[in-house]
Design brief:
S-adenosylmethionine decarboxylase; alpha+beta; eight-stranded antiparallel sheet
Amino acid sequence: MFFEGSEKKAEVIINNNNFCLLNDVNDSFWQELVACCNAQIISRISNENCKAFLLSESSLFVWTDRFLILTCGVTTLVNSIEYFLKNIDNSHINQVIYQRKNEYFSHAQLSCFSDDTKILAQHMNGKAYRFGEMDSHHNYIFHQENSFIAAPEDKTYGLLAYQISEQASRSLTTPGLSAQCIRDFFNIDLLLPGFLIDDFVFEPYGYSLNAIKNDKYLTIHVTPQAMSSYVSFESNIDLVELAAQILAVLQPASFDLLSFNELDFVDKVQANISSDYISKALVKQTLTNGYFVCFANFIKPQLHFSKPAQLDLTGEDHAL
């Protein structure tokens, strides 16, 4: 069974002097927004600073001055962003950032990054970049072009792991696996002490977790199938410093790191990434909206020959 775990991601930042996303927008609005990309809200947790919605395809987080949404599968996330732009007074919106990364099964998607940016361009001026090489892992970023400048302390991180080890894949596809078993597998209590947790195990495979503490968040999404395994971590806590713990659990063949406003990215990579991995791509750029963006792709060199994957020609196989 194949599933596109790779997420599309968007963040919209508002001026919250006279308008607050956390208090002035009710949950029915977010339900409609999520439905626009063909996803549904499964559950919700909240504290004084943040609401975290677990979705049928990934996650939505809402703070007073911004919201962040990630969706996977064949969702059309740009439709949700357009819904927001059409229903919220444009004077409240400070910045829109839209991201898409390379997909395993791009031919099965209902749109591509170029299609999405054409829709966004109907509502705003913007710039677009590709971080990483076209024939390898890469991440597309579109951002609104206006007078907005990000605060230096506005930092976010992504760690995206591909081709997790056979042992990790087997552990995460065990029949009857409980959410607590997966939390234990990832050492969540050590990774996220004191965080409020909301998680869900999908059938037949897959797992999503949202965690919040004050204004901090972390979300994990797991597609464990051996043929297309992918595990993503997104957070505003430092995932570069946590990378060694995460990689020790998953032992992926390759992974990406993406950071916004982490000025010490290079030093932290050198301190926390094992020499078992080598960098295949290193890209950095300060965007005109003030974000300093770093992208790195790491691979573990293969030292031994492996066997080819045998494909099923009789069934529906999205890898063909």
